[in-house]
């Protein structure tokens, strides 16, 4: 019997096979770091008098706490400033390369790896951050870990893990115009639930997936964790190689040829069997928006907010009622009748150049609605910011009345000053609509950059076809 | 003897030589625990609810007890605000507990508050792994058992549950319910073993793998030295001021 892509990558990293229920020992090719989940791991290493085993397989950047304005001034929040200065001193002490605030390669860790060409097919990539699944878009096995595991990788360059189960999600057919990667992944999570992928590595397959650009693939793999999966992967193809070619850390010359030869073997065999399989028809998909307080509570944009009394499953009914109350919605109201205060375009899900181009294509020649408080446009990295400026997108955003910011995680989780006040409602291109995620009492609707931009034009949840 | 039991024996003897008396690390052992059970009738409890991001700015690993369920604890009706449940050690909750962010702070907050066991029908993978690394048991029980425990704990708030890791059972009054935990996690929790110590016993395997890796995959990237990175100046954005009258919801 053949093996799946995930199983092939696992096998190529097997340091030691566990027996009688003990986990395998898996080698890690790249550990990414940021300031939030690393300080306690460095402290543990120091306390045990251990070294960082492979600094050359480690890279750090600052993203969660970094302000998106006034980056040329000291960080006002003392605890944020301490966390960032702690990362800087730890990197210095242990010899880790760091892209600090102000560096052209600073940005959200899940953009920094790919843009430098450090994320490549067939690698194992980890980070103390659940959205590490993003890197699976390259055919890497990439997953988020806790701080204890960060320390474990620092000390041993390995992880002790039980093999993951495998799951295929086939997205067949052609994607309709105006429907994006974000809509595909929100539809998948709504279908299988926030725990649907638990214990599994998802491989996204099918025509609609392989037609997508690398950035769109990253959007899909990024939100695998919102379906509860350990990781999401897409087998590498010509689109992957074209993205990588010429990037700073991509192989060159003869090494490039050897790499591509290996990458081409990273395909699920025809006779491989997945533990679970789900199929969606891309042609039936529409722009998707969440109405509730977890990413599985989403619907097509033309739908109505659910009526809890009509939900038969007790636990789902309770969850829906509680979400509708928190979100301040009326059961049965049209999603398109929901007015928002704030529009957030950014994050490791949708803060890349193609996302900014999509938003700008809707905003061009228009102005934000009077009722909209603010439109924040936050590039995923400083490099993305430079690219957008070279294309004149910053001018489009400014003319629209949006704020063009510096790079970072920003309002996705509000660890920096970009957060909402209680009762404030956003349409957000980020990945989580949990209670209070974007600031205490904040209300979040997740959507694509196209829907977010169209909503900014009309003031109520809209898609570009409504304009 | 199974492989990891043999590893354990070796681990203890090695540690004996290296650090004298005592176990491999300071992770607390968990065997049998009796403590107040707290019913949390919710599914999909994400780690942003367990501890909001604002508390992740610290660089220490302790003192997170006040941050636990920070938003919900502002509500006087929340379980932990009832005096009977306030000293809870065993949390009984709905499915998909610990979804979302990988923040280990969620486990630190539960642990610092006093919780040593969380019982749910299903856990998010990262949370499950993080719990075991901090001496916290994530015990898996079917929804029907959870419903029964909720009923018992709500009928008589402050009731204790006894969790026996050896037997894989939770007992509340005269009701004893089985739970699932994988053998390896159970063994590590019962012995308080640390993963890094266990892994470092396989140092030779790691070194041998690194040799094979260098031969087979010479094209894999290294972060150091950095390669041809242009340094470009990044302009600083400035905040725009406006006179916002507050959220639409507050004005309606």
Automatic annotation (TrEMBL), chain A:
CDD domains: IPMI. The keyword Iron applies. SUPFAM superfamilies: Aconitase iron-sulfur domain. Binds 1 [4Fe-4S] cluster per subunit. Residues 7-459 form the Aconitase/3-isopropylmalate dehydratase large subunit alpha/beta/alpha domain. The lineage of its organism: Bacteria, Bacillati, Actinomycetota, Actinomycetes, Bifidobacteriales. This is 3-isopropylmalate dehydratase large subunit. Keywords: 4Fe-4S, Amino-acid biosynthesis, Branched-chain amino acid biosynthesis, Iron, Iron-sulfur, Leucine biosynthesis, Lyase, Metal-binding. It is an enzyme of class 4 (lyase). It comes from Bifidobacterium psychraerophilum. Catalyzes the isomerization between 2-isopropylmalate and 3-isopropylmalate, via the formation of 2-isopropylmaleate.
């Amino acid at each position: 019997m053949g093996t799946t892509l995930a199983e092939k990558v696992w096998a190529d990293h097997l340091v030691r096979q566990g027996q009688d229920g003990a986990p395998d020992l898996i080698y890690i090719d790249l550990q990414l770091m940021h300031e939030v989940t690393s300080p306690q791991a460095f402290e543990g290493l120091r306390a045990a008098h251990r070294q960082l085993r492979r600094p050359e397989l480690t890279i750090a950047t600052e993203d969660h706490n970094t302000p998106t304005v006034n980056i040329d001034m000291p960080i006002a929040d003392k605890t944020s400033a301490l966390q960032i200065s702690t990362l800087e001193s730890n990197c210095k002490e242990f010899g880790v390369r760091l892209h600090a605030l102000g560096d052209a390669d600073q940005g959200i860790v899940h953009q920094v790896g790919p843009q430098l060409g450090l994320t490549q097919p067939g690698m194992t990539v980890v980070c103390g951050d659940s959205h590490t699944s993003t890197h699976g878009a390259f055919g890497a096995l990439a997953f988020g870990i806790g701080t204890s595991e960060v320390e474990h990788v620092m000390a041993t360059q390995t992880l002790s893990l039980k093999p993951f189960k495998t799951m295929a999600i086939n997205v067949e057919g052609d994607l309709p115009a105006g429907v994006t990667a974000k809509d595909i992944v929100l539809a998948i999570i709504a279908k299988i639930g926030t725990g649907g992928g638990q214990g599994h590595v998802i491989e996204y397959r099918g025509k609609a997936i392989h037609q997508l650009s690398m950035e769109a693939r990253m959007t899909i793999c990024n939100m695998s964790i919102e379906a509860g999966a350990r990781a999401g992967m897409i087998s590498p193809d010509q689109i992957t190689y074209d993205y990588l070619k010429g990037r700073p850390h991509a192989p060159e010359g003869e090494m490039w040829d050897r790499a591509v030869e290996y990458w081409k073997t990273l395909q699920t065999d025809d006779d491989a069997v997945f533990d679970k399989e789900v199929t969606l028809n891309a042609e039936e998909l529409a722009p998707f928006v969440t109405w509730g307080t977890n990413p599985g509570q989403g619907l097509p944009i033309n739908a109505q907010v659910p009526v809890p009394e009509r939900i038969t499953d007790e636990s789902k009914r309770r969850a829906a009622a509680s979400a509708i109350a928190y979100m301040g919605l009326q059961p049965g109201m049209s999603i398109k009748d929901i007015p928002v205060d704030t529009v957030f375009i950014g994050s490791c899900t949708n803060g890349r150049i193609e996302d900014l181009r999509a938003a700008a294509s809707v905003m061009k020649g228009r102005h934000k609605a009077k009722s909209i408080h603010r439109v924040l446009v936050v590039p995923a990295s400083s490099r993305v910011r430079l690219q957008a400026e070279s294309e004149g997108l910053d001018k489009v955003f400014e003319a629209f009345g949006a704020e063009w910011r510096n790079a970072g995680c920003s309002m996705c989780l509000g660890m920096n000053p970009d957060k909402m006040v209680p009762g404030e409602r956003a349409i957000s291109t980020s990945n989580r609509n949990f209670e209070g995620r974007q600031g205490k009492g904040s209300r979040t609707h997740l959507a694509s950059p196209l829907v977010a931009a169209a909503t900014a034009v009309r003031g109520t949840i809209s898609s570009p076809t409504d304009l | 003897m199974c492989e990891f039991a043999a590893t354990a024996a070796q681990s203890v003897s090695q540690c004996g030589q290296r650090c004298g008396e005592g176990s491999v690390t300071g992770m607390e052992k968990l065997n049998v625990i009796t403590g107040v059970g707290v019913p949390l009738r919710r599914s999909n409890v994400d780690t942003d609810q367990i501890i909001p991001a604002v508390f992740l700015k610290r660089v220490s690993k302790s003192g997170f007890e006040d941050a636990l369920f920070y938003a919900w604890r502002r509500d006087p009706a929340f379980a932990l605000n009832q005096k009977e449940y306030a000293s809870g050690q065993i949390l009984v909750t709905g499915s998909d507990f610990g979804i979302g962010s990988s923040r280990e702070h969620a486990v630190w907050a539960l642990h610092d508050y006093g919780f040593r066991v969380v019982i749910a029908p299903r856990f998010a993978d990262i949370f499950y792994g993080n719990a075991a690394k901090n001496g916290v048991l994530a015990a898996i029980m079917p929804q029907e058992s959870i419903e029964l425990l909720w009923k018992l704990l709500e009928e008589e708030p402050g009731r204790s549950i006894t969790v026996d890791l050896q037997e894989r059972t939770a007992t509340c009054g005269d009701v004893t319910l089985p739970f699932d935990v994988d053998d390896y996690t159970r063994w590590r929790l019962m012995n308080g073993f640390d993963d890094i110590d266990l892994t470092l016993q396989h140092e030779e395997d790691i070194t041998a793998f690194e040799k094979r890796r260098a031969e087979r995959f010479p094209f894999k990237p290294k972060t150091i030295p950095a390669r041809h990175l242009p340094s470009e100046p990044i302009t600083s954005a400035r905040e725009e001021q406006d006179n916002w009258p507050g959220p639409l919801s507050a004005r309606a």
